[in-house]
Amino acid sequence: MIEVSDVYFTYPNGVEALKGVSLTIRDGEFIAVMGQNGAGKTTLVKHFNGLLKPTRGKVLIDGVDTQNVSVATLARKVGFVFQNPDNQLFCETVEDEVSYALKNFGFNEETIKERVDWALNLLDMVEYRRVSPFMLSGGERKRVALASILAWDPNIVILDEPTIGQDYQQKERLRQFILQLNNQGKTVIMVTHDVEFVTDCKPHIVLMAQGRIIAEGEANKVLTDPEVVSQASLILPEVTQIFLGLRELDLPQDVIDVYEASRILLTKLGES
Amino acid sequence: MSPSEDDGGPELAIIKTENLTYTYPIGVKPAFEDVSIEIEKGEFVVLTGPSGCGKTTLCRCLNGLVPHFYGGKLEGEVTVAGLRVTEHPIYELAQHAGLVFQNPENQLFALSVEKDVAFGLENLGISREEIQRRVNWALQITGIEDLRNRAPHELSGGQQQRVAIASILVMQPEVIVLDEPTSFLDPLGAQKIFQVIDELNKDLGITVILVEHRLDMASRYADRIIVMNKGRVVLNGKPREVFDSEEARLIGIGIPKATRLYQLLKANGVNLNRVPVTFHEASHVIKEAFIHDRS
Question: Residue B141: inside a domain, yes or no?
Answer without folding.
Answer: no
